[in-house]
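[job 4471] stage=fold_predict status=RUNNING
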Amino acid sequence: MSLKNAQDSLEINQALIQAGRLAPVEIIQNQTDIANRQVSLLSAQNDLESKRLALLAILDIDKNTNIEAETIPSVKPVTLDIEKLRNIALSTQPGYLQAQFSVDQTKLNLMVAEDNKRWDLNLNATLLNNLNEAVDARLGLTFGHTFGDLNLEQAFKRAQVELRKSENTLKNVQTKLDIELQDRVRNTNLSYNQLELARRATQLSQQQLEIEQEKLKLGRGNAVFQLIRLQNELAQARNAELDATIQYLNALTNLDLFLGTTLQTWQVKIEN
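[job 4471] inference complete, writing structure tokens
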């Protein structure tokens, strides 16, 4: 769109030069602007092709498949209750669950190490058949313990230390979880506020263009140059709104990734 506007501006200036109303040197700026727009267009086309191939690689489909974005996605605000999200994170966040699992594992190790220090209690039973068909049955309990074995006590102490370390790690993970959750919620809300401002800027730019077009119809507009400038500004505003939309959607995606709720959000079920 910007390239087309620059080309339209060049045609107008050429007509003004032919009419003697504009100096020929003034056209150099238009030609420079067109060249810059062409470079930007080529860069955008290359970036588009790169993104298309990356998407095809993710989808694992034919590389010659043509993919086009039809419309800008409709975005609505999502209410974020930080306490509710925190409870969700404590039950689904991978990092926290891993730290919690480590605590449970060290508790079991401590139980085993403590049990190894206790006396052994064994039940012994024997049954003997004599030649005279007499049966000798014996049943007894045996207590056993190894005195002076420092390895058992050392293993018990090590298990106690490992449990304290894993509990401290769990506390640190939970503290970091709370901080990062607050930061991600704040960033998501900020992204939506930026999107709202970008939408408003697009609407105002559209209104300015429509007003100027109406003025030109009535013969009251400043110049065609003003119209082209407003067209460029509208294109920039639309791009800014699209960038803000993508930024907000990415913020929601990153929040899901942090919480470990991506599959639930997209209603994807994995069979065991």
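[job 4471] summary: The chain has a mean pLDDT of 87.
[job 4471] exit 0
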